[in-house]
Predict the structure.
Amino acid sequence: MQFFLPLVLGFCIAFLAVILPGLINMTAAKISTQEGKNEALSFAVGAAVIIFFQTFIAVLFARFISVHQEIVSTLQEIGIFVFTLLSIYFFWIAKKPKKIKTDSTVKGKSNRFFLGMLLSTLNLLPIPFYVFASMSLSASGYFSFDKIPVSSFVIGVVCGSFTVFYIYIVAFKKIEKKTEFLMRNINTIIGSVTTFMAVVTLLKLLYN
C-alpha cells in the first residue's frame, strides 16, 4: 500500500493535469501525423525523462517546506492571493482561445527525443504544481516523504504524463473535436478550479 497508493495518486494527478491540450501533447500529436508514430514516441520519451527530474525535485522541495511550518503558512497566504487573481483573470479578462490549428508543420528534423527534452525543460510549471500537490497529499495523510512513497509517486507522475502523450499520438484525430470543446471552455474550467483552490486554502488557514 505504501507503494501502490502514491503510484495511483501520481498517475491520476498527472493524467488530469496533462490531459488538456498543451505544448507538449499537441507537439507529440503533430509529429505523429507528420512523421510517424515512432518519432512521436521518441519525443514523448524525451519529455517524460525531464518530467521525472522535475517531479523528483518538486517532491524534495516539498519535503523541505513541510518541516518548516512558517514557510507553509506563508505559501498558503500567497496561494490564496495567486488563485484569486487567476480566477479573476480567467473569468473576466481572458479571451476565448482560438481554434487549435492542426495543419501546421513541426519545423526541423533534429532528434525528436532531444526536442521532447527541450520543450519539457522550458515548461517549468510542473515543479510548483507537484510541490503543492505532494504537500496537499501529505497534509491529507495519503502520502509521506519517505523513499518508497516518493519513488512511487514520481513513477506514477511519469507514467500518467506519458499515457496522455500516447493517447494524443495514437488517437488525436478521434479526440480532436473533444479537445476543441475543451479549448472553447478552458477559461471557465480553469477559473472554476482556481476559485475552488482559493476557497479551500482560505478555509485551511482559518481553521488551523
